[in-house]
Design goal:
CATH architecture of the largest domain in chain B: Up-down Bundle
CATH class of the domain at 166-300 and 320-401 in chain A: Mainly Alpha
Keywords (chain A): Protein transport, Transport
Strand content of chain B: 5-15%
Protein name (chain A): SNX4 protein
Distance between the termini of chain A: 64 Å
GO molecular function, one term (chain A): phosphatidylinositol-3-phosphate binding
Helix content of chain A: 55-70%
Low-confidence stretches of chain B: 1-32
CATH topology of the largest domain in chain B: Substrate Binding Domain Of Dnak, Chain:A, Domain 2
Shape of chain A: elongated
Family (chain A): Belongs to the sorting nexin family.
Largest interface: A-B, 49 and 42 residues
Radius of gyration of chain A: 32 Å
Number of strands of chain A: 3
CATH superfamily of the largest domain in chain B: Arfaptin homology (AH) domain/BAR domain
Order of helices and strands of chain B: HHEEEHHHHHHHH
InterPro entries (chain A): AH/BAR_dom_sf, PX_dom, PX_dom_sf, PX_SNX4, SNX4, SNX4_BAR
CATH superfamily of the domain at 166-300 and 320-401 in chain A: Arfaptin homology (AH) domain/BAR domain
Low-confidence stretches of chain A: none
Structural class of chain B: mainly alpha
Oligomer: heterodimer
């Protein structure tokens, strides 16, 4: 972590702005642009502040960056982006992408994304990432020039590999199960949390009605009037307090959401492994088949049934010259194949090693982050209860004076 | 206080005994002097060929002289309570008779014999009898005494006596007639104020009742969601190693919150909701009492008018008028006294009930 970018550079996504412009098919559209500010971190220079560089990016450019990173570093668990559309909403939250609260939460999410990439020992050194932060114009073209899209594995190929692979590393299979479980449990949790928030909101807000009626009632009372009136005021305070409480909870939900999306990143690494492993297995199978063929031709025995064998039986054997030629070709192919197999094996082992190292790093990060998130959730709940105690103690005093 | 003593002579069913006169109007609540303790419990269901009904056990303990024994245990059904209430209303048209729980509960489609319904009704009946016992006038009512002490057959035979259908009909006719006459001309200032107050109060208390029910409902839904929320964390902890303990901790905290919420809800349904409901009924009763007072005054006024027109039978009339004036005076005084009492009680009740609710919530948050 010593020379990761985050230590050398301050990165913030400081603003969001609504823009209109023409898109690829020349239709006018509204989108939000985010301001990325970067500043080099000077070491211990007093009063010397490095100048702030800034440029604007929109969400689709972040997406492009992430796709590039996923394809270029398939053995890395690439940090996820905040959600594209508002999910897990409850009735007060709007599902509108232009809603200022949503935009604000997304801004924070994007900043978090950049910081995670910048603190990653491998990813932070990527040039494209660096230019994303610093180079305003021409970045898109630069990315496309890397031709990363061609390197991307087709979904179909990956699916095929997942089904057909025979001997994947057990750890990856376990990891895949884990990420499935993680995804399902977190999304369930977020859904229920949204419902709980909704109900809690209802309970608090209805208490606000008390405030109104108490104040109306106090108008006709003599001795009870003052007590009622002030108690009503506290009910209003109580009802209003829920807004801040739930806003804070949204941040907690966002932290969980990040790990929900991380599950997908984990699966991507597993898929890559399965693909490579499948490739390896296919190559090995191919090699074995060729060796067998060669042997058969050389010794003239037909071990397994083959169409060739049948046809040669029916139409006569080949000439010795033909056979020689074939054997030669096969021997070449076998040599090539063995080379390939060796390098694929090496590739595979390297992949597993580096992927697993990153996965361990990820696990530690995840445990740390989730623990902190849970702690902050508990702290939030305690603070909510403390506020409740305060309001009801005050109300109780007012009531006892009635 | 001479005006108070007059009330005594005009109430037909009031036993005029020296001891009861001194006990007559105690405005301050002196719990140490309570000499009548009543409980309503043990609902039992009875099935006959014609109907099914519930009876409640009514236990009375007393040290009063006019009671032959110091302990009584009888069984009464809802009809009997209705009878008692109507007798009390007859005898004291301008006193505030406590409310009875309703016959049916329309909304919510509660089964007539569901446990919740029976329990709620039992509590309300218990409150009803105790409020009567605490009332300085009503507590000495003869029908009340019979209600508490008579065996089932004694009660039915006593019920058959009394003014009966005809006189009650007469009252109703008079009531209709006076309301047709269109309100009262000289309603005293005091009662105008009270009338306005009751109208507004009735509105507000109804709204409060609705709000309280709504809160209860929202809390129930919140509880339901929370019940699902906790176990998810436990499920998650099964896939984790490092953070499993933290997750299990959160799950158990959520469970504790659920229990605290249940307690909070119980507090609401045992305390706040029944009282608010009782005062909703009370506000209706108050309107009724005010109307009856107006009626009585109406009678007086019409007789005064009649007198003004017929100079001849002056003497006869003036005696009648004299009686009616007294009647009105008594009714007014009784109502005023009772009204003050009621208000004090209400304040007390409201105070304690809301304080209770606040305490409940405090406990909830502390947990």
């Amino acid at each position: 972590m010593e020379d990761c970018l985050a230590k050398k550079m301050e990165i913030t996504v400081s603003e969001a702005e609504k823009r209109t412009g023409r898109n690829a098919v020349n239709i006018q559209e509204t989108y939000t642009a985010y301001l990325i500010e970067t500043r080099a971190v000077e070491s211990q220079s007093e009063g010397q502040c490095a100048p702030v560089d800034s440029l604007w990016r929109r969400y689709s450019e972040f997406e492009l960056l992430r796709n590039y990173l996923s394809v270029t570093y398939p053995h890395i668990v690439v940090p996820p982006l905040p959600e594209k559309r508002a999910d897990f909403v409850w009735h007060k939250l709007s599902a509108d992408n232009m809603d200022p609260d949503f935009v604000e939460r997304r801004r924070i999410g994007l900043e978090n994304f950049l910081l995670r990439v910048a603190s990653h020992p491998v990813l932070c050194q990527d040039k494209i990432f660096y230019s994303f932060l610093t180079q305003e114009g021409g970045w898109k073209e630069m990315v496309n020039e890397t031709g990363f899209q061609l390197k991307a594995d087709s979904r179909l190929k990956a699916l095929n590999a997942t089904f057909r692979v025979k001997n994947p590393d057990k750890r990856f299979t376990e990891l895949k199960h884990y990420s499935d479980e993680l995804q399902s449990v977190i999304s369930h949790l977020l859904r229920v949390r949204a419902r709980v928030a909704d109900r809690l909101y209802g309970v608090y807000k209805v208490h606000g009605n008390y405030g109104r009626v108490f104040s109306e009632w106090s108008a006709i009372e003599k001795e009870m009037g003052d007590g009622l009136q002030s108690a009503g005021h506290h009910m209003d305070v109580y009802a209003a307090s829920i807004d801040d409480i739930l806003e804070e909870e949204e941040h907690y939900a966002d932290q969980l959401k990040e790990y929900l999306f991380y599950a997908e990143a984990l699966r991507a690494v597993c898929r890559k492994h399965e693909l490579m492993q499948y490739d390896l297995e296919m190559a090995a199978q191919d090699l074995t088949a060729k060796k067998q063929q060669c042997e058969e031709l050389a010794t003239g025995t037909v071990r397994t049934f083959s169409l060739k064998g049948m046809t040669s039986k029916l139409f006569g054997q080949e000439t010795p010259e033909q056979r020689e030629a074939k054997i030669k070709v096969l021997e070449e192919q076998i040599q090539e194949g063995e080379q390939q197999l060796k390098s694929k094996n090496l590739e595979g082992r390297d992949f597993v090693k580096s992927a697993w190292a990153d996965i361990e790093r990820f696990k530690e990060q995840k445990n740390h982050d989730l623990k902190e998130a849970l702690i902050s959730y508990a702290v939030m709940q305690i603070s909510m209860c403390k506020k409740g105690i305060q309001v009801w103690t005050n109300a109780k005093e007012c009531f006892s004076k009635m | 206080d001479t005006s108070l003593a007059e009330v005594n002579s005009f109430s037909p069913s009031m036993p005029i005994s020296p001891s009861s006169m001194t006990n007559q109007y105690k405005f301050e609540d002196e719990p140490e002097l309570r000499d009548l303790f009543i409980t309503v419990d043990d609902p039992e269901s009875h099935i006959t060929a014609i109907e099914t009904f519930i009876t409640y056990r009514v236990v009375t303990k007393t040290s009063r002289g006019e009671f032959d024994s110091s302990e009584y245990e009888v069984r009464r059904r809802y009809q009997d309570f209705l009878w008692l209430k109507s007798k009390l209303e007859e005898a004291h048209p301008t006193l505030i008779i406590p409310p009875l729980p309703e016959k049916f509960v329309m909304k919510g489609m509660v089964e007539r014999f569901s446990d919740d319904f029976i329990e709620t009704r039992r509590k309300a009946l218990h409150k009803f009898l105790n409020r009567i016992a605490d009332h300085p006038t009503l507590t000495f009512n003869e029908d009340f005494k019979i209600f508490l002490t008579a065996q089932a057959w004694e009660l039915s035979s006593h019920k058959k006596q009394g003014p009966g259908l005809l006189s009650r009909m007469g009252q109703t006719v008079r009531a209709v007639a006076s309301s047709v006459r269109g309100g009262v001309k000289n309603r005293p200032e005091v009662f105008i104020e009270i009338n306005d107050y009751v109208e507004t109060f009735s509105q507000k208390i109804n709204v409060l009742d609705k709000i309280a029910h709504r809160i209860y409902k929202e809390e129930r839904e919140y509880l339901n969601e929370m019940k699902e929320y906790g176990p998810i964390h436990t499920l998650w902890s099964a896939s984790e190693e490092d953070i499993a303990d933290s997750l299990k901790g959160v799950a158990s905290c959520i469970d504790k919150c659920c229990k605290a919420t249940e307690k909070r809800m119980a507090g609401l349904s045992e305390n706040l909701l029944p009282i608010l409901h009782e005062y909703v009924l009370y506000s209706e009763i108050l309107m009724g009492v005010l109307k009856r007072r107006d009626q009585i005054q109406g009678e007086l006024d019409s007789k005064v008018d009649a007198l003004a027109n017929k100079k001849t039978e002056k003497d006869l009339f003036s005696e009648e008028i004299g009686k009616l004036e007294d009647k009105v005076e008594c009714a007014n005084n009784a109502l005023k006294a009772d009204w003050d009492r009621w208000k004090q009680n209400m304040q007390c009740d409201m105070r304690s009930t809301f304080t209770n609710m606040a305490e409940n919530n405090l406990r909830y948050y502390e947990e």
